[in-house]
Amino acid sequence: MSDERIYPVKPEIAASAHFNTEGYRQLYEQSINEPEIFWAEQAGAFLDWQHPWQEVLSYDYPKGEIAWFKGGQLNVSANCLDRHLSLRGDQIAIIWEGDDPDQQQQLTYRELYHQVCKFANVLKAQGVQKGDRVCIYLPMITEAAVVILACARIGAVHSIVFGGFSADALRDRILDADCRVLICADESYRGGKIVHSKLNADKAAAQCPNLQTLIVIEHTGHEIPWQAGRDISYRQAMQAAAAECPAEVMDAEDPLFILYTSGSTGKPKGVLHTTGGYLLYAAMTHKYVFDYQEGDIYWCTADIGWITGHSYVLYGPLCNGATSLMFEGVPTYPSPDRFWQVIDKHQVSIFYTAPTAIRALMAHGEAHVGHTSRQSLRILGSVGEPINPEAWEWYYQVVGNSRCPIVDTWWQTETGGILITPLPGATDLKPGSATLPFFGVQPALLDHDGQILEGPGEGILVLSHPWPGQARTIYGDHARFVDTYFGKYPGYYLAGDGARRDADGYYWITGRIDDVLNVSGHRLGTAEIESALVLHKDVAEAAVVGFPHPIKGQGIYAYVTLNVGVTGTDALKKELAVLVKEEISAIALPDIMQWAAGLPKTRSGKIMRRILRKIAANDFDNLGDISTLADPAVVEDLIAHRLHL
Ligand code: WT7
């Protein structure tokens, strides 16, 4: 498109950045032409290895087999902590900003190291061994960093479940990974309200027969129910724990963590990441994408329950010896200037957040930004969903005072780290485009027959070669891994997104091409929400689709067919909402529920979601061919009863 606005690289940024345009081009080329040499160099530069690898890369996409740095040995927590002690033991590793603006903490690398060693001993005392899975259900508190790194230290595989997920969702994830230990908080604060972490954990734990231990971190310190024999006080256990704990020597391909994410069908899948490749990729992308420099104060607003929190609140920054800010609260509490207040208070220089937050704050008006300084900012980042050019411009001009490049980073839980992104000193920016591939990343566009599209055009986004941060399997279901990512277009990793490539080779992500929704940057499967709705005795059938939502990016539109004789009431809608909250989370609540007399189905009984999406989007003119429907009249009825926000 010729009307696209371009923001050229700023000379003052390029002058001190790790890469300028030419530097990026050259290294990118090398990373593609000589990948093994390239990645070996990076692995040596970014990580401390206890034993060298024998083979940089071996892979077989059709079998879903991917291995990086085979034979190499290292420990993630030693790379994030021990090796920093001599140089930066007294540097702040984590700045914690509470939900309450008066609450804050700082942990140096040395303090964090000591706490991690102690908690590693606590886990060992509970019988946790290398390879065991530990479930972590925590708010954004410094202890989360401690327990995560402690798992890595002893080779236990952590499975973090977002603190906003329900007890049932937590239970399913504990069972799937067969975790024996669960770590929760007593309670936490979010936007001034109490979140009952322990109550949810209790409810989940009661339904997990193999779960032996619940370690409770005292955060609010309020009175909570206690099950003697099972529950352990974090504070007491830490007091009793020995201070030294050697880091377990791990193979590069040993599992580091499992993280559940939604797919287009079935239950959430446990995406598994391993040790060497993941850490290298998280650290390297953190340094180069955000142009991280010594002395930066870096803040990624993501929750540790999502991959962004794993890679860019903890592992990447700590591996690089950075100071990473952890925020317990929400952007609008106590007022919609909270982000900018925190930036001024801690002199944040790199800020990474989601478009949905930007749009929400934009809606509150510029006045909430204008009275803050934000002079400390140098780089802005965006992640989680496409950023609309309007939000991009506001972020750039109002938040960054037109001084700070925005890196719009495209990636996924499965990719471990950022794949398509600008580099601050190297890439001219176009609002709404994630721009160009990171080193070693080879995106391609396919048509529906799986043919490669050359030059400008739009298609199915795939990656033709592995990168070190790539997921290795779905825990307990390798067949699903192969099927989901490598089955449909053999020889490629299928991301599940569509994209357009322009004449400059820039990528514009157009959104998911499967039945996965992206609601406020949260990934949800339509099937999961439908399953929750049909649990109700009065519901015959449900179909869920996304629709354009001004703040959330995508909203959730649910068409619900009731059993014969049941009348749709507001009370029933409330019951369904409770069900979704209990089964999944408040983030999965439908924005709109429409009672549907019938759903558009083909004669073979397949629901035609394409039509439901059009109706939800108010786009009635392009419904396409509906003559193949078993009963075309249902479409008229759905349109007649379409509801609005
Ligand atoms: C999906 C992955 C990336 C970590 C957080 C979400 C969408 C992500 C962008 C972006 C357009 C984006 C994609 C992707 N997405 N970043 N910069 N531009 N879309 O991880 O929960 O695994 O979701 O988020 O649709 O497939 P996730």
Automatic annotation (TrEMBL):
PTM sites of type N6-acetyllysine: K606
Catalytic activity: acetate + ATP + CoA = acetyl-CoA + AMP + diphosphate
Post-translational modification: Acetylated. Deacetylation by the SIR2-homolog deacetylase activates the enzyme.
Organism: Methylomonas paludis
Domain AMP-dependent synthetase/ligase as annotated: residue spans: 83-466
Domain AMP-binding enzyme C-terminal positions: 528-606
Name the record gives this protein: Acetyl-coenzyme A synthetase
UniProt GO MF annotations: acetate-CoA ligase activity; AMP binding; ATP binding; metal ion binding
Family named by the database record: Belongs to the ATP-dependent AMP-binding enzyme family.
Acetyl-coenzyme A synthetase N-terminal domain ranges (all copies): 24-80
Taxonomic path: Bacteria, Pseudomonadati, Pseudomonadota, Gammaproteobacteria, Methylococcales
GO CC annotations on file: cytosol
Enzyme Commission numbers on file: 6.2.1.1
Cofactor dependency: Mg(2+)
